[in-house]
C-alpha cells in the first residue's frame, strides 16, 4: 500500500492535475473508480477520518463481550468494558503483532493466543511473561481506534487523532435516535450485499432516486414521494407536497420534522435528518404497509412516517414507527464494496411471530436491484469507451458528494 510519503512530487502533481480537470456536475474520470493507487491514497487519507456506525449495543450487552469487524481493510475489536464504556482497538498485539481475538468469546481480559500477553478491556497491557528489563508497560497498550456510543449505536473511526468531533452531529441525531428507541432495540436481521464496484459508484447510486422508476418497481409503486422526486412532473410534485403538508399536520413526531444539515468540511461529520411520509396509506415499510412489530421508542401510534438519517458519510438509517434499517457502505477494495443492511426492532418484539420476510422485503429487493445496477455501471466504467457524463437535477446529491470528495482529496494531498 502506498503511504502519503510515497506519493512523490511528480505523482502528487499528476493527481492534483487529475483532480483539477474534473468537470463540475459531471461524473468522475475512470481512474477514480479503477486505479489501485488512488484507492490506496483514499485508504491512507480519507477513510481513517470517517466515522461509521459499526455495531448496535445489543451485540455486546455485557462487560467482557467483544466483537471483531473489518473496518476499511483493518480488523478491529470492539469491547464492552462495563462501567468504563466501549473501547475499540486494532486486532494487533503490541508484542509481535499477532491477531489477538480469533473469535467473539466473552472474557474478563483480552489475551493474545501467541505468547499470552494479557490486556485490560480498556487496552492497557496487564501482563506479559518475562518482559525484558526496562520494558515500559505503559508504551505497550493496544492500538486504539475512535469509538463513541450514542443512542444505542456504536460509531468507530480508525484515526483517533484526525477524526472530526461527533458532538455537533449528535446534538441533532441523538433526540431522533432516542425518539425511535434505538437504545432499546435488538437486531432482527442482518444481510450483506457484496457489490463489485468502487465505493464512490455505490454512494453515487445511493444518493439519487433518478434510477428508482426504471430500477425499483416495488419501491416506486409503494412509496409515493418517489413520484415527486424521481420524475420531472410538476403536477405530481405539487400534489405530493400537498399530501406531505397534510401528513405533517397529524404526524406524531413534529420534533423530528425536517431538519437538514450538511457539513462539507473535512473537520466535520456529514449528517442530516429529515422526516417524510413513506407512501400514502402505508403505516410502515413492511411488505403490505401494515404494522409488523411493536411500536418503538416514544411512538404511541402509527403516523406512516420515515426519519432518514445520514450518520456520517458511510452509514445511514431509515427509521419507521415499528422498525429501523441501518445501511453501512464498507469499501473493501478498489472495486469491492460491501453494503450491509441491519434491521432493528423493539427489544420486546416476539421472535416467534415476527415476519422477517415482510420486515426485510422492501430494502432487500431494493438493495439487490441496486447491486445489479451498480455492477452494470462499474462494467461500463471499465470500458475504454467510458467518459464522464452529466448529472441531472435529480442527481444533485450525487453531484455534491463528488464535488466534496474532490475538494477533500485536494486538501488532503496538497
Ligand atoms: Fe501477542 Fe506475542 S504476539 S503475545
Ligand atoms: Fe436504488
UniProtKB/TrEMBL annotation:
Keywords: 2Fe-2S, Dioxygenase, Iron, Iron-sulfur, Metal-binding, Oxidoreductase. InterPro entries: Rieske_2Fe-2S, Rieske_2Fe-2S_sf, Ring_hydroxy_dOase_asu_C_dom, Rng_hydr_dOase-A. GO terms for molecular function: 2 iron, 2 sulfur cluster binding; dioxygenase activity; iron ion binding. Its cofactor is Fe cation. Gene3D superfamilies: Naphthalene 1,2-dioxygenase Alpha Subunit, Chain A, domain 1 (3.90.380.10), Rieske [2Fe-2S] iron-sulphur domain (2.102.10.10). It comes from the Bacteria. Residues 52-156 form the Rieske domain. It holds the Pfam family Ring_hydroxyl_A. PANTHER family: CHOLINE MONOOXYGENASE, CHLOROPLASTIC (PTHR43756:SF5). This is Aromatic ring-hydroxylating dioxygenase subunit alpha. The lineage of its organism: Bacteria, Pseudomonadati, Pseudomonadota, Alphaproteobacteria, Sphingomonadales.
Amino acid at each position: 500500500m502506498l503511504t502519503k510519503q510515497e506519493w512523490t512530487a511528480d505523482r502528487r502533481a499528476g493527481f492534483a492535475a487529475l483532480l483539477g480537470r474534473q468537470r463540475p456536475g459531471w461524473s468522475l474520470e475512470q481512474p477514480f473508480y479503477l486505479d489501485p493507487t488512488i484507492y490506496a491514497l483514499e485508504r491512507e487519507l480519507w477513510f481513517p477520518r470517517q466515522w461509521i456506525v459499526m455495531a448496535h449495543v445489543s451485540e455486546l450487552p455485557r462487560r467482557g463481550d467483544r466483537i471483531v469487524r473489518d473496518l476499511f481493510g483493518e480488523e478491529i475489536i470492539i469491547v464492552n468494558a462495563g462501567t468504563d464504556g466501549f473501547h475499540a482497538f486494532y486486532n494487533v498485539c503490541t508484542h509481535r503483532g499477532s491477531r489477538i481475538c480469533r473469535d467473539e468469546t466473552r472474557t474478563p481480559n483480552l489475551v493474545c493466543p501467541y505468547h499470552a500477553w494479557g490486556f485490560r478491556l480498556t487496552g492497557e497491557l496487564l501482563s506479559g511473561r518475562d518482559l525484558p528489563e526496562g520494558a515500559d508497560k505503559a508504551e505497550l497498550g493496544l492500538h486504539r481506534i475512535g469509538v463513541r456510543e450514542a443512542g444505542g449505536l456504536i460509531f468507530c473511526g480508525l484515526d483517533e487523532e484526525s477524526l472530526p468531533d461527533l458532538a455537533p452531529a449528535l446534538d441533532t441525531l441523538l433526540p431522533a435516535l432516542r425518539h425511535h428507541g434505538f437504545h432499546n432495540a435488538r437486531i432482527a436481521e442482518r444481510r450483506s450485499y457484496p457489490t463489485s464496484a468502487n465505493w464512490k459508484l455505490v454512494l453515487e447510486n445511493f444518493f439519487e432516486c433518478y434510477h428508482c422508476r426504471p430500477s425499483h418497481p416495488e419501491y416506486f409503486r409503494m412509496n409515493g414521494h418517489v413520484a415527486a422526486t424521481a420524475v420531472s412532473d410538476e403536477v405530481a410534485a405539487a400534489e405530493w407536497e400537498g399530501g406531505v403538508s397534510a401528513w405533517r399536520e397529524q404526524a406524531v413526531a413534529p420534533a423530528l420534522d425536517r431538519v437538514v444539515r450538511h457539513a462539507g468540511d473535512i473537520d466535520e461529520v456529514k449528517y442530516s435528518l429529515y422526516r417524510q411520509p413513506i407512501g400514502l396509506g402505508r403505516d410502515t415499510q413492511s411488505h403490505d404497509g401494515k404494522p409488523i412489530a411493536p411500536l418503538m421508542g416514544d411512538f404511541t401510534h402509527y403516523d406512516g412516517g420515515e426519519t432518514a438519517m445520514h450518520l456520517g458519510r458511510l452509514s445511514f438509517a431509515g427509521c419507521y414507527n415499528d422498525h429501523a434499517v441501518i445501511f453501512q457502505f464498507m469499501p473493501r477494495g478498489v472495486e469491492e464494496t460491501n453494503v450491509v443492511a441491519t434491521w432493528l426492532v423493539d427489544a420486546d418484539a416476539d421472535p416467534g411471530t415476527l415476519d422477517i420476510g415482510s420486515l426485510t422485503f422492501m430494502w432487500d429487493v431494493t438493495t439487490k436491484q441496486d447491486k445489479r445496477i451498480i455492477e452494470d455501471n462499474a462494467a461500463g466504467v471499465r470500458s475504454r469507451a467510458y467518459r464522464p457524463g452529466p448529472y441531472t437535477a435529480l442527481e444533485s446529491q450525487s453531484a455534491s458528494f463528488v464535488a466534496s470528495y474532490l475538494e477533500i482529496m485536494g486538501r488532503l494531498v496538497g
